[in-house]
Write a structure and sequence with these properties.
- The chain is mainly alpha-helical.
- The protein has 2 domains: about 375 residues, no CATH class; about 110 residues, D-Maltodextrin-Binding Protein, domain 2.
- The protein is built from 22 helices and 5 strands.
- The protein has a 5-stranded mixed sheet, with helices on both faces.
- Helix 7 crosses helix 14.
- The longest helix has about 30 residues.
- The relative contact order is 0.10.
């Protein structure tokens, strides 16, 4: 850890905590419990566990279809203890995680605390992350950085607690094993000996998770990796993977946050990670190295560019940009014939001006998103349709669709996933791009069709077999263009 005399003043840490708490609470108030459909898959697992049905998506089906098992277990426990609805607990996890990450980074920033304060402010107010609130990714990153903070230089109990914390991060999201391994290497380099207490605790927690998964689900790892790779292989136009991952990711960051500055943000931020690693302590070095490793790992894994995968990279980019600007400003100020305090002030002003010139659109977008009314059209569409299905079906009636989280959570009906995340039997058909075959192999009482997702279910609606056996029974629409969801029901024709 950074020695006490090299940490930012406690007054700075206290002021930063208050500064960052305000936008986090405001974002929670505006966005709470309404988020992306995929996160509701984990919420459904958590709800079933809390309700006594077991850690499953559909009661009676032990399918390992969540990439965040530890996060789901935590949500189930918390909702039983507090009676707070699970979607709100998901949002609150983001509310805790973002200021927590920023404070850990600030505490470890040494004499670069002004840069860390600026980067943390960007992180806590980042619309790109807040629009994906409820994801396990920010909370997982917080646990990893907390593990780095707990791992004191002197071995002992701290190594064990750091290993346990890093292991919990891996439970929350398996790809955190990459960050946990990087932390082990950082500790090895600092101490010049193997951090065996850390490694033993980490290994014990990860092994416990693997054994538990094998006993409950019959497999060690979520089959979501297999499903996502199948999605990318079968529907290349809809899901970009491989080395097309990052062009698609940049487009998503631009759309949700950066306008046309995503590439600039990540390039400058990537260059600045060297300054982060050089000037910061272990927590910041882990933040930088973990982001770089994930940026390479996702294309190599062949998974599609889901937007929340980039959260650790965007978070690290903020620190890279601010630290690089600060480094350049300080070096230029050192050339001026001024006293040290004046040079330091000049450096910070120069760095701040450079940042504003380059990234004003990011700040403008943040303010715009924070002040405009929130509509949540897709979430509202799914929630209303799920309520209709619950009111117009029997408890055992199955529903088929391609975005299944919100629908399953609010309908309380068994849901079949035509793209395989929680329904493994769909994967062989998906690999052949045969959604029709997947549905005919297991026809359900209901099928849903969304105008903007017609690439999946559109061909099935045109098939004579489907037209003879199903009829439209409900249509839900929002004012947003293209947000129409149609419910088809089996009519009894054999």
């Amino acid at each position: 850890m950074v020695p006490e005399d090299r940490r930012p003043p406690r007054s700075v840490l206290a002021a930063a905590a208050l500064l960052w708490l305000a936008p986090a609470v405001y974002a929670t108030w505006r966005l709470g419990a309404k988020s992306f459909d995929d996160f509701y898959i984990t919420y459904r697992y958590a709800w079933n566990l809390a309700a006594g049905h077991g850690f499953v998506f559909n009661p009676g089906q032990r399918v390992f279809g969540t990439t965040a098992p530890g996060f789901g277990l935590l949500l189930a426990l918390l909702t039983r203890l507090t009676a707070i609805p699970i979607p709100w607990l998901g949002t609150l996890a983001t509310t805790v995680a973002l200021p927590g990450i920023a404070l850990l980074a600030l505490r470890d920033s040494r004499d670069r605390w002004p840069e860390a304060l600026a980067a943390g402010s960007l992180l806590v107010t980042c619309h790109y992350i807040w629009v994906q609130h409820g994801s396990e990714v920010p909370f997982t990153l917080f646990l990893l950085l907390a593990a780095a903070a707990l791992a004191e230089r002197h071995p002992g109990l701290s190594g064990l607690t750091a290993g346990l914390t890093a292991g919990c991060a891996v439970w929350c999201r398996p790809d955190a094993l990459l960050g946990a391994g990087i932390l082990g290497l950082l500790l090895w380099g600092e101490r010049r000996r193997l951090p065996w207490r850390y490694g033993a605790a980490l290994g014990a927690v990860v092994a416990a998770g693997l054994i538990s998964a094998r006993l409950w689900f019959g497999q060690l790892l979520p089959h979501t990796l297999e499903a996502k790779r199948a999605q990318a292989a079968a529907l290349r136009a809809a899901w970009k993977a491989g080395w097309a991952f990052w062009p698609e990711a940049l487009a998503q960051i631009n759309q949700l946050y950066a306008g046309d500055r995503a590439l600039l943000l990540l390039l400058i931020g990537g260059l600045g990670l060297a300054a982060v690693a050089w000037r910061g302590g272990r927590t910041l070095r882990l933040l930088a190295a973990n982001a770089a490793a994930l940026a390479l790992a996702y294309p190599l894994l062949g998974v599609p560019a889901y937007t929340w995968y980039m959260i650790p990279v965007v978070a690290a980019a903020f620190y890279g940009v601010c630290f690089l600007a600060g480094e350049i400003g300080r070096r230029l100020a050192a050339l001026l014939p001024l006293p040290e305090p004046a040079r330091r002030t000049s450096a910070l002003l120069a760095a701040g001006l450079a940042f504003l010139l380059v990234f004003t659109p990011l700040l403008t977008r943040t303010v715009k998103e924070a002040t405009r009314p929130r509509a949540f059209p897709r979430f509202t569409l799914y929630e209303r349709t799920a309520a209709w299905i619950r009111a117009n079906s029997a408890p055992g009636d199955e529903v088929s669709y391609v975005e299944v989280g919100t629908l399953a959570y609010f309908s309380d009906r068994p849901v079949e996933d035509l793209v395989g995340l929680v329904t493994p039997r769909s994967l062989p058909f998906l690999l052949k791009n045969d959604i029709i075959g997947a549905f005919r192999d297991h026809p359900t009482a209901f099928l849903l069709h969304h105008e903007k997702l017609a690439v999946f279910t559109g061909p099935l609606l045109q098939h004579r077999w489907f037209q003879r056996r199903y009829e439209e029974v409900h249509r839900e629409a929002m004012r947003a263009p293209g947000e129409v969801l149609v419910v088809y029901r089996r009519n009894g024709v054999p």
